[in-house]
Amino acid sequence: MSVTDDAPQAPPTERKRDRRHERDVALPRWMWVPAVVAFLVIALPVAGLLIEADWARMPELLTSEAALAALRLSLETAAASTVLCILLGGPLAAVLARGRMPGLRTLRSVVLLPLVLPPVVGGLALLYLVGARGLVGEALRLGFGVTVPFTTVAVILAQTFVAMPFLVVSLEGALRTAGERYEAVAATLGASPALTFRRVTVPLVLPGLMSGTVLAFARCLGEFGATITFAGNLQGTTQTLPLLVYLQRETDDAGAIALSLLLVVVAILVIAFARPRNTEGIR
Amino acid sequence: MKCRALLGLLAGLALLLAGCGGSSGAADAGGSSAAAQPKTLTVLAAASLTETFDAMKARFETDNPGVTVRISYGGSSDLASQIVNGAPVDVFASASDATMKTVTDKDLTTAAPTIFATNVLQIATQPGNPKGIASFADLAKPDLKVVVCAPQVPCGAAAKKIETATGVTLTPVSQETDVKSVLGKVSTGNADAGLVYVTDVTAAKDSVQGVTFPEAQQAATNYPIAVVKNAPQADLAQKWIDMVTGEFGQKTLNAAGFGAEK
Amino acid sequence: MTGAALAATVRLDRPGFSLDVAIDAAPGEVVAVLGPNGSGKSTLLGVLSGLLVPDSGHVRVGEETVTDVDAGISVPPHRRGVGLLAQQALLFPHMTALANVAFGPRAAGIAKRDAEARALSLIADVLPGLDADEMARRRPSQMSGGQQQRVALARALAPRPGLLLLDEPLAALDVDATPAMRSLLRRVIRDAKQTALLVTHSALDALVLADRVVVLDAGRIVEQGATREVLTKPRTPFTARIAGLDLVPGTACTDGLRTHDGTLVSGLSAEPLVDGDAAVAVFAPSAVSVFRDRPAGSPRNALRVRLAAIEPQGDTVRLRASPPADGPAWLDGLAADVTLAAAAELAVEPGAELWFAVKATEVAVHPAAS
C-alpha cells in the first residue's frame, strides 16, 4: 500500500503568499482617503516633534542625569509591570476564556475598566486603597511597616493597573480563537491540564501573548496619570520618562521634545523587535 | 487623492487646535466686529487664581452688561504656550514672572505686565499638625515624609530658592507636578507635610493646616497680568486689569491669602 | 497490543435532548455507532472520553471504573487511557509530526528517546512508501489532509489507549484519500485488536471496520447486533435508510466475490484483497436493473429473486427481494430502485419471480470485518 492516492503533497517548505500577482478584491478605492488621513493623524504629530527638535543639543539633553535615570526607571518598571501582567493576567485571560462559572461577564467588564477610566482615576483609586489611610495601605503600614506610595513599587502597581487589560484582552481573544479542540485532544493523549497548558495552549496563543505583551509594555512605558497621582515624582525612584517630559516642558521645551523623541524611539524599537511573527500555519 | 487627504487632515488639525483653545473663546470670534452684539472677554489665568477670578468675573459681568467673561484656568506655562501658539486671548494673568516673560519675549503683550499680587509658600500639614512642625528647618527631619513641587514648576522653584537661602536641604519623597497634587498627598495622609502657596492652604479649608514660616518671604512669587497683543476685546481687557488692581480686586485677593501688589 | 473491555451505561439530559444508552465492547472488538446528526453519537464519545460528565451512569474501561456518578467517580480525560481520533486531524500546528506522535508517550512519562522511537515507527507504519524520517520532521501545514489524518491516527495510538474513539475519522477526507485511510484503519485497529468505538454515517465504514453495530436515534439505541446482520436485515426503516446499500457476503476471489453457496458476484475490489478473505460485495439499489426474464448480454451479475415487497419512495419504487424457493438465503432483503414508469411497465405483484441485474463496474468488493 502506498499513499500516492492521497491529495498532492505540499512541498516541504511552506510557500510564501505571492502578493505581487494578486488583485485587491476587497479594498474599495475610496478607502484610501480616510486610511491615509488616519495614518497622517498619527504620523504627522510625531514628524512635528522631529521638526521642532533641537538636534544640536540632543546628545546633551538625552544624557542628562535626570534623563538617563528616567529612561532606566521607565524600562525597569515597564519590564517588571509587564512580567506581572503576564504572570497574573495570563491566568486571568485563561479563566475568562475557558472558565465555566457564572459571573464571568461581569468579571470581564471589571477587567476592562482601566481601558475606559482616565489613568488619574486609577491612580486615585490606588492611592485610596494602598495609600496611608487606604484599606490595604493601613494594614501594610501597621502590619509590616511598609508604605507603598512614593516608591518604585507604586510605579509598578500603577503601570500594572493600566496595562493589565491590554494583555488580558489580547490573550483572551487568542485563547478563544485557538479554541479548546486541541486541548481536548491533548487530554485524550494523556496530558494533564498543566502539561496541556504548557505544551499546547501557550504555544498556540503565543502570537496573541506576544502582541498583548508588547501592548502592555508600551502602555506601561507611556503611563503618566496613574503614576503621578499614586506614586509621585522623584528622580531615580518614581520619575519615569513621561513624568520627566511633562515637567521638563514647564521650563525647557527643547528638553521635553528630546525626551519625547527618546520615548518614541523606545516605543518603535519595542514594536519592531517584538512584533508577533507571521502566524500563518498556526490556526 | 493624496492632496485631498492632506487638506482633510489640515482641516482636522485646525479643528483640534480650535478645540484646544476652545475654552479661550475662539467660538465667538465674530462678536468683536459688531459693537451691539454681546461681547466675550477671554482671560487665561493661573489655576491658583480660580476662586478670586471667579468672584471678579461675577462682579465684572454685573458692572458691564452684555459682557461675558470666559476664564480658562491652567498651569501658567500651559497658558503661555497657548498664547505663543496664537490662541485668541484678551488677558493673561500668570503665576510667575518667568512664564509671563515667555510671552513678553515674543512681544505678545500690548504693554509691560503689571504685578497685581504676590504669593508666598506655606507649610501644609495634616489637620491638627500631628507631627508638630513649626519651622522650615523641621521639614528636614528624617522621619518626615515631605512632598514639594518639582523644581521645574514655580512652587518648586520657590521651595528650591528657600532651601538655598536657608541652607536647609529637604529630602522630599516626591516632587509633584503642581500644588494641588502636593495638597492631595498631604490631605490623604500619605505625606506629613508639603510646601504650597498660602493661597492653596486657604483654599483647601480644613483638609490641611497651614504653618507660616518667615523664610517664605525670600521666595515670594509675583503674579503679573497683561493685555495680550491683538486682543479681540482690548478695551474690556484693560478694564479687567483695572478691576484686578483696583480696590475690589485687591480685597478679594487679600481675602484669599495673596499679598498686595508691589 | 490488545485493547481493554468497555462497559458503559450513560444518561445525560440537556434541553431538548437526552442520551440514554448502554454500550459495551469486548477486548479487541470494534463497535460502530451509526446514527444521523443529533442522535447523540458525539455526546456519547464525549462522555466516554471524560470531556463530558453524564447525569447518571458508569463507564468502565478494562478493570478501571472511570465514571460512576453514584459513587462520585469521574476520572479526568487524561487519566482514562481513552484515545480519540476526530474528523479533523487536529495535529498540534506548532509541532513536527514526530513531536505530535511522541506527545502522548511523553505525557505518560516515557523518556524522550524511547517516545520518539515509538513515534517514528508508528509514522512509518501509517505512511508506508514514504520516507518516515523526512515525514517525521514535517509540520502539519506541510502535509496533505490524508497524511495529517494518518499521523493523527498514529498519535492517537501512540499512548496505547485501552479504548480508541473514532469520531467519523473519514468524513473530512478527500474522496480520493478515503479508501486508503479506511484500509489503514482496518489494518491498525482491527488487526491489532484495538478496542474501538467508531462513530460513522457510513454503512460501508461499519462493514469494513466493525464487528458490531449500534444504531442510535434521538439518544436511544434502536438496533444493535453483528454488522452484517444489522445492515442486511434492517429491522427499522431508520437502519435501512442508513444501510441504503445492497450487500452480499462471501469470500474474495479474483473476479470479485464468491458467496458461500458458490455464486460468483463479479465486481471491482476497492482495496487490495487476498483470495479467500472474508469480503462483502456492495452496490447501490439504484444500480440494479430489473427484468421479468433473464437478461441477455452485458450485465455480468444476474440474480433470480422473488419479489417480496414494493415500497414507493417518492419518484422511485424500491423493489425488495426474497430468495426464490430454491435460491440462497443471502438474496433476502436485496433492493432495486426503479422509476415509477419502469415499475408500471413491469406490472408485477409481490411473489412474482424477477431478475436483478447489476454491472460488475457497479459492484465494489470490500474486505469484511468477520
TrEMBL record, chain A:
Belongs to the binding-protein-dependent transport system permease family. CysTW subfamily. Residues 1-20 are annotated as: Disordered. The keyword Transmembrane applies. CDD domains: TM_PBP2. It holds the Pfam family BPD_transp_1. Residues 71-274 form the ABC transmembrane type-1 domain. It is a multi-pass membrane protein. NCBIfam families: Mo_ABC_porter, modB_ABC. The chain crosses the membrane at residues 30-51, 78-97, 109-130, 150-171, 204-234, 254-274. GO terms for cellular component: plasma membrane. This is Molybdenum transport system permease. Keywords: Cell membrane, Membrane, Molybdenum, Transmembrane, Transmembrane helix, Transport. InterPro entries: MetI-like, MetI-like_sf, ModB_ABC, NifC_ABC_porter. It is found in: Cell membrane. The keyword Transmembrane helix applies. It comes from the Bacteria. Part of the binding-protein-dependent transport system for molybdenum; probably responsible for the translocation of the substrate across the membrane. One of its GO terms (molecular function) is molybdate ion transmembrane transporter activity. The gene is modB.
Automatic annotation (TrEMBL), chain B:
This is Molybdate-binding protein. PANTHER family: MOLYBDATE-BINDING PERIPLASMIC PROTEIN, SULFATE-BINDING PROTEIN. Residues 1-26 form the signal peptide. Gene3D superfamilies: Periplasmic binding protein-like II. NCBIfam families: modA. It holds the Pfam family SBP_bac_11. PROSITE patterns: PROKAR_LIPOPROTEIN (PS51257). The keyword Transmembrane helix does not apply. It comes from the Bacteria. GO terms for biological process: molybdate ion transport. Belongs to the bacterial solute-binding protein ModA family. Keywords: Metal-binding, Molybdenum, Signal. InterPro entries: ModA, ModA/WtpA. GO terms for molecular function: metal ion binding; molybdate ion binding. Molybdate binds at S48, S76, V179, Y197.
Automatic annotation (TrEMBL), chain C:
This is ABC transporter ATP-binding protein. InterPro entries: AAA+_ATPase, ABC_transporter-like_ATP-bd, ABC_transporter-like_CS, Mo/tungstate-bd_C_term_dom, Molybdenum_import_ModC, Mop_domain, P-loop_NTPase, Transp-assoc_OB_typ1. The lineage of its organism: Bacteria, Bacillati, Actinomycetota, Actinomycetes, Pseudonocardiales. Keywords: ATP-binding, Cell membrane, Membrane, Molybdenum, Nucleotide-binding, Translocase, Transport. GO terms for biological process: molybdate ion transport. One of its GO terms (molecular function) is ATP binding. It comes from Pseudonocardia sulfidoxydans NBRC 16205. Residues 296-367 form the Mop domain. The gene is modC. Residues 1-243 form the ABC transporter domain.
